[in-house]
Each structure stands twice: as structure tokens, then as C-alpha cells.
Design goal:
single chain, mainly alpha
Length: 105
């Protein structure tokens, strides 16, 4: 099999490489909206990403509070979960995971 390549990678000139670097820097300046990005990097996070981050932080705080409440209830001997609900949850989760993994009878 013969492969013909019209470009020669071994003969890249220094001016060609500088031209590519110049184009890259120009693109970064344009992406940075007028800021010369050759000496600095910047990133913009959309409003949606900020809201997602806030929701995740709030969820973590809620989970921590719930764990603390459950821990206190267990320590006082006041935690009495519904055993039927727990068993239904365990079996349901196992069936869901089995079906998702392609396992079946």
C-alpha cells in the first residue's frame, strides 16, 4: 500500500511555525474579547454553570445536615427505619441495576 502525502512534515520552516503560533495568539485575543491572552488566560462560566454549582453546594449542605440528624437519632436509640420499606428499596435497586446491566432471567 502506498500513501502519498502532499505535505512534508520534515521540512517545516521556522517562519511557518511562527506563523502558526501567531495565528493561535490572534485567535486567543479574539476569544478573550480584546484582552491580550498571550500573557494571561481567562475563562468565563455561564450563568447556568454557576446555578448548577450553587445547587450542588446546597445539596451537599442538605446531605450533611441529614446525616447529622440521623447520626444523632441513632446515638439516642431513636432511629427506627421501616424494615419493609428498606427491603423494597434494596430489591428494587437490585432489579434496576440488573436490568440496566442487561441481566435478565
Amino acid at each position: 500500500m502506498k500513501i502519498e502525502n502532499g505535505t512534508s512534515l520534515g521540512s517545516a520552516s521556522a517562519t511557518g511555525a511562527a506563523g502558526v503560533a501567531g495565528a493561535d495568539a490572534a485567535g486567543r485575543r479574539e476569544a478573550g474579547r480584546g484582552v491580550d491572552s498571550a500573557n494571561s488566560d481567562s475563562a468565563e462560566i455561564s450563568g447556568l454553570a454557576g446555578k448548577i454549582s450553587q445547587a450542588l453546594n446546597q445539596d451537599s449542605a442538605n446531605r450533611a445536615a441529614t446525616v447529622q440528624q440521623l447520626s444523632a437519632a441513632v446515638a439516642k436509640g431513636q432511629y427506627n427505619p421501616d424494615s419493609a420499606a428498606v427491603s423494597r428499596g434494596i430489591v428494587g435497586e437490585a432489579l434496576t441495576n440488573s436490568a440496566a446491566a442487561g441481566g435478565g432471567s
